[in-house]
Design goal:
The complex is a heterodimer of chains A (348) and B (854). Helices cover 44% and strands 20% of the residues of chain A. In chain A, helix 1 (3-24) packs parallel to helix 4 (59-96). Chain A has a 7-stranded mixed sheet, with helices on both faces. Chain A has 348 residues and is an alpha+beta fold. By secondary structure, chain B is an alpha+beta fold. Chain B has 19 helices and 41 strands. In chain B, helix 10 (437-446) crosses helix 11 (472-483). The N and C termini of chain B lie far apart (91 Å). Classes of the chains: A alpha+beta (348), B alpha+beta (854).
């Protein structure tokens, strides 16, 4: 028997054992061990390879061919088994990584803007979209801007009706009344704007306002108002109606109508209460809800603010943001806006 | 103002409409109806009866057993009618022969159906009714006893105004002219374009002037003409009046909400309600002489009809006799000269008072009467004589007798108002309504306004009772109202300007979104605080205190947002919520001149409007910009954002194991600063450990930014001190913070260039990690600042990634690891750069009082 034959026998035996060991490997470590055992530098294979130097030149190609065949078979088996084991290992990892994604996430989601903010932004944006701007002013205000400018002189009944909260400030006006107050409406901003800017003016004024009202379901000493003011040449009461109709439709639905009813405000003449249609009454007639007060800016207000009433005219209106929010969202207790209860915030 | 429909109908041809429809129409024309009442509606089976006899109830002290009849002949004792009804009655104000109201068995009165009922052994067949039971008044002292000649047996509806609609009108502003039946009737006539009548009662026959016997009339003089235009006084002698006003008069008064008192007083009230002219009746025998109208002297005293002693000033107008004031002009009469049942000499006053004077007195004395209400809003200055005549007419009508001895007057009635010239074209322009001059004249005529048109030039003369028509705008309103507001078309105004949110207004919305993105809900709280409140940013300034606060714990405006937020935390903790995270955006309030002013000044952006709000110049209307100096300032009220975090972090369906921390709050404010700066790094909030009342001494920082003269405090963030949290009954941890936004919002409003991109460098970054051992007393911020300065331009980013305490560090020390991203625009960095950076960092860290670990 030639040494080649012996080597071939060894290889065949080796291959048989290697394939058995590879097949038996259940982990990648087992497989690696088999690889080292059968193909490593100290393996039986290495012994066979070393014999290459000792055999004759004629026999070498024969042995070389046998060696190559062995390697191809064993390495193929190794690769196949590795693939199998890797796939199994990945499966095990994935199985171990199982998550119940029906458990709610841990992240704290963004909070909500307050309902007053949401409704106020909507109201403001309705006018902004029609080309209006937004004005702002102080909440602790001058009685002159809040009342005198608005044609509400000190002895005017409306000034008493306003139930104003005053500052313990010491300063009094020419009538002996406190000069610094918490603004009962955002009208003083109208005066501030008109005194610093000539027409055309088209502004809405959202903001916090104050009345000396005790807290109950329908009254709040603090509430939010949005007033509007448009002053220019040729501004008419028809423009008031057009603007407020567009507003009512944006806020409450395109099918809404508004109705103007004569009213009395010191700062407007003519003055109008504005109702918005709200479905029908049981008798089939249109149901109307009062939503705001409005009118043509009184000439006295314009001239107090330094605007020529002979040249310019304008209209103004005021609407309660809470009132709109209560109507739109069915809020029945105004206190809910100011208590910060999380159950309220979570709803909107 | 309550208006019985039947009373209105005496002056205006009311259309045949359901009352609800009439009220709706009135509302559309500016006569807003609050409510419609129908007192006595639902009364059935109730008739007029006569008392035949009564005897005490055998078994009950306070009850009577009464026999009544519905037969119409009192002489036959009910025998002929064959109708005798026995019932039990609790009243005792009647006697045999009296005419009463009987609600019979099977009948009903409001709230009650009558059936035969046994009362202590006697069967009562129905009941005798009081005025209140029939909703005809408040009187419940006894049953109604009708006039003796009232027909017996007829249904009560034939003699009493039961179920008659009464319209309750809301009267607004200057329309004093609709505070009477006549005034509303006139306005209704104008609005509905129907006919009306103006009453012209006759004055009594008077002895020719100068009047002498049979009596000496009370003379009148006006010493204060600025307070009284016209004063009329009718003196009557030998006055004999019935004991009580007749039922029709008492019911009318009841319908309008006035309590019947005595015939003389009732008549003055009736005239006031009917014509709108308040009157007063004096017992002339109790007057010390003639009457004068004058200003009170300071400290002068008058006991008014309500039995209250009033101390007057020189701004109060009085009617006085030689002994002193006998009435508070236009508000309330005096107690001492009140008419009584025995009054024999009577003075009836009708006067026209100055509205502002009456308003002042009513307000300063906190005394409002039906009279003052009308005078404050303006009474027809032509109506005094007519009121006196009407009162006389009524006296005669109720069967009183008296001898008129003289009518004395001072001042003059005003019968025609000043004429105004208006342009019909401008009225069309103001209303946006195409209504010709002729149509305007016709509309105004309906309201009694005389208008003459010459083309579009209108000459307008309002009637005496319309004090509210003095200008073009007033006339325009009247035209619009009578034409119908619903005729005004809806037209969108021409676009007069470019609209939109200003940059600061947009930024306020952006900041809100940024804050809420951290998981905070926005809240709105009432911005009041009491004496005890937690200090926020820059505590210690003076509070803005209210003169008339709603409550003691709401005595001042909030100097910080923290107190309101803590109130919200408290409320939600009380609802058993495991955690609270809320934010509020709003103004905080400090008296001017405090430390916050210095901060706002230091940070005031160039080109921005002054952050201070001021009172208008003293003579604002005249546009006189008188420099009044510092005392024209309003309190400081900058916009700010506040947060409060308590307990566990949570979503709507998951509780985190982690609780909210100071660091969460700091992250919120850092993000706010990034949003507000000209670039994301422009505003760097520096954290400086501070010790503040109510806060954890080692978990509280002031937020500072650099001002021109060094850092200034713009915010505060901290954890509540455990004892503060306990005092508020709040489970720890409770974290609060606030940041003043005003300077940056102002900078935005003043305009700002958009951010310019820094080109992205493509060369790779080198990453260097450093660990620094720092004693607790040394703030990381100082170490970081030193590192940043030392590395300089190469440093792109620096991020802390680990904080470690324990072995092998000494106690009171921690190791902070940070990763540095280094990059140069012009070259790739190499090992030399790394070595140099590390050496520099080591030196810098040592200088800052720490030690780099290598």
């Amino acid at each position: 028997m030639s040494s080649v034959d012996t080597a071939a026998d060894t290889l065949a035996d080796l291959q048989e054992r290697a394939l058995a060991a590879i097949a038996a490997a259940t982990t990648l470590d087992d497989l690696d061990e088999a690889r080292v055992t059968f193909t490593g530098r100290k393996s039986d294979l290495a012994t066979v390879q070393q014999s290459m130097g000792r055999i004759s030149a004629e026999e070498r190609p024969v042995l070389g061919k046998a060696l190559n065949a062995f390697k191809a078979v064993v390495e193929g088996a190794l690769a196949d088994q590795r693939e199998v084991l890797e796939a199994a290992a990945l499966d095990r990892r994935l199985a171990g990584e199982r998550l119940d994604l029906t458990i709610p996430p841990l992240a704290v989601p963004p909070g909500r803007p307050h309902l007053i903010s949401q409704v106020q932004d909507l109201m403001v944006d309705t006018f902004v979209a029609m080309g209006w701007r937004v004005a702002d002013g102080p909440e602790v205000e001058s009685a002159a801007y809040a009342f005198d400018a608005m044609n509400i002189p000190p002895d005017h009944p409306a000034r008493q009706d306003m139930d104003t909260i005053y500052l313990q400030d010491g300063r009094v006006d020419a009538y002996g009344l406190p000069e610094v107050i918490l603004r009962p409406h955002t009208s003083p901003v109208q005066a501030r704007v008109m005194r610093t800017q000539q027409p055309p003016i088209a502004i809405v004024i959202p903001g916090r306002t104050y009345r000396n009202d005790s807290v109950d379901a329908t009254h709040s000493p603090v509430f939010t108002q949005m007033e509007g003011l448009m002053v220019g040449e040729g501004i008419t009461m028809a423009h008031l109606r057009g603007s407020l109709q567009a507003f009512a439709r944006a806020m409450f639905g395109p099918d809404r109508d508004i109705r103007l009813r004569p009213s009395m405000f010191p700062f407007t003449e003519p003055s109008a209460e504005v109702d918005v249609s709200w479905g029908t009454n049981p008798d089939g007639t249109t149901r109307w809800l009062e939503i705001l007060g409005s009118g043509m800016v009184d000439p006295l207000v314009l001239s107090w603010c330094g605007i020529d009433p002979e040249r310019y005219s304008g209209f103004a209106f005021g609407i309660g943001v809470e009132r709109v929010a209560m109507l739109r969202h069915g809020v029945s207790d105004i206190r809910d806006f100011y208590e910060g209860d999380a159950r309220f915030s979570a709803q909107f | 103002m309550k208006l019985p429909l039947s009373w209105l109908a005496t002056y205006v041809d009311l259309p045949d409409l359901p009352v609800a429809e009439l009220a709706e129409t009135m509302g559309r024309f500016g006569l807003e109806v609050d409510a419609i009442h129908t007192p006595g509606a639902g009364v059935t089976g109730t008739t007029v009866a006569r008392v035949l006899a009564w005897e005490p109830h055998p078994d009950a002290d306070r009850l009577r057993v009464v026999r009544i009849t519905h037969g119409d002949d009192p002489a036959d004792g009910g025998g002929a009618g064959g109708d005798v009804v026995e019932l039990v009655c609790g009243a005792s104000n009647f006697d045999t022969g009296d005419v009463v109201v009987h609600a019979g068995v099977g009948g009903s009165i409001p709230g009650l159906v009558l059936e035969a009922r046994e009362l202590r052994g006697v069967v009562s067949n129905g009941m005798l009714c009081s005025a209140r039971e029939l909703e005809l008044g408040e009187d419940h002292d006894g049953i109604m006893v009708l006039d003796p000649d009232t027909p017996v047996g007829v249904d009560v509806h034939e003699v009493l105004p039961l179920g008659e609609p009464v319209i309750d009108l809301e009267v607004k502003g200057a329309r004093g002219d609709v505070l009477s039946v006549l005034g509303v009737a006139r306005d209704l006539a104008a609005v509905l374009d129907v006919g009306s009548v103006d009453p012209v009662p006759d004055l009594p026959p008077l002895p020719p002037l100068p009047a002498e016997p049979p009596g000496d009339p009370v003379e009148v003089v006006i010493e204060a003409p600025e307070g009284c235009r016209h004063f009329a006084a009718l003196t009557l002698d030998d006055v004999q009046v019935p004991a009580a006003s007749p039922w029709w008069l008492r019911q009318r008064l009841a319908q309008v909400g006035v309590r019947a008192i005595s015939p003389l007083v009732d008549i003055t009230n009736y005239v006031m309600m009917e014509l709108g002219q308040p009157m007063h009746a004096y017992d002339a025998d109790r007057l010390a002489g003639d009457l004068s109208v004058r200003w009170a002297t300071d400290g002068e005293v008058l006991v008014t009809l309500d039995d209250v002693e009033r101390t007057l000033t020189t701004r109060d107008l009085v009617v006085a006799d030689p002994s002193g004031p006998v009435g508070l002009a236009g508000v309330m009469g005096g107690d001492a000269t009140e008419v009584t049942a025995t009054t024999r000499r009577l003075v009836l006053e009708a006067a026209i008072w100055d509205p502002a004077t009456i308003r002042h007195t009513a307000r300063t004395l906190r005394l409002t009467s039906e009279a003052s209400l009308r005078f404050e809003r303006g009474v027809d200055p032509a109506g005094a004589r007519r009121a006196i005549a009407r009162a006389w007419e009524l006296l005669v009508e109720i069967g009183a007798s008296a001898t008129p001895v003289g009518l004395r007057e001072a001042g003059q009635p005003i019968t025609a108002r000043e004429t105004i010239e208006v342009d019909a074209g401008r009225i069309r322009g103001l209303l946006g309504l195409d209504v010709s001059a002729e149509e305007q004249v016709a509309l105004l005529a309906r309201a009694g306004v005389l208008a003459v048109a010459d083309g579009d030039a209108l000459t307008v003369t309002p009637p005496s009772w319309r004090s509210d028509l003095t200008r073009m705008a007033d006339v325009a309103e009247e035209v619009a109202r009578l034409h119908g507001f619903d005729q005004i078309p809806a037209v969108l105004p021409p676009l007069v300007q470019g609209g939109g949110l200003a940059a600061d207004q947009q930024a306020e919305r952006d900041v809100r979104s940024a804050v809420l993105a951290f998981g905070l809900d926005e809240v709105v709280t009432r911005p009041f605080v009491g004496d005890d409140h937690l200090g926020g940013v820059l505590p210690g300034g003076d509070r803005v205190v209210l003169a008339n606060p709603l409550a003691q714990d709401a005595a001042a405006m909030r100097p910080s947002l923290l107190e309101g937020l803590l109130g919200v935390v408290r409320r939600n903790v009380g609802q058993s919520r495991p955690g609270v995270a809320v934010a509020e955006f709003g103004r905080i309030f400090r008296l001017d001149g405090g430390p916050l002013d210095a901060v706002l000044d230091a940070l005031a952006p160039t080109g921005a409007a002054d952050w201070r709000w001021t009172l208008p110049p003293a003579d604002a209307a005249a546009g006189d910009a008188a420099a009044d100096g510092g005392d024209r300032l309003l309190p400081t009220q900058p916009r700010a954002v506040g947060v409060a975090l308590q307990g566990r972090r949570a979503s709507s369906s998951r509780l985190d194991t982690r609780t909210w921390s100071v660091s969460d709050a700091l992250a919120v404010f850092d993000e706010v600063a990034r949003r507000l700066g000209a670039t994301p790094d422009a505003i760097r909030l520096q954290r400086v450990a501070v010790v503040r009342d109510g806060f954890h001494p080692h978990r509280t920082v002031a937020l500072q930014v650099d001002g021109p003269d060094g850092p200034v405090e713009v915010g505060l963030v901290g954890q509540l001190h455990p004892s503060e949290a306990a005092a508020r009954d709040l489970p720890e941890p409770v974290v609060v913070g606030e940041l003043v936004l005003e300077p940056w919002l102002q900078a935005l409003a003043a305009g700002r260039a958009p951010i310019v991109e820094t080109p992205l460098v493509t060369r790779p970054a080198m990453i260097v990690d450093v660990a620094v051992e720092v004693a607790d007393e040394v703030a990381w911020a100082d170490v970081e600042a030193a590192v940043r300065a030392a590395v300089g331009d190469l440093l792109e980013d620096l991020r802390v990634f680990d904080v470690y305490r324990g072995d092998p560090l000494p106690a009171g020390h921690r190791s902070i690891a940070a990763r540095l991203w280094l990059r140069a625009a012009d070259r790739a960095l190499d090992g030399d750069d790394e070595a140099r950076v590390l050496a520099d960092v080591e030196d810098a860290v040592a200088t800052a009082g720490a030690r780099m670990r290598r």
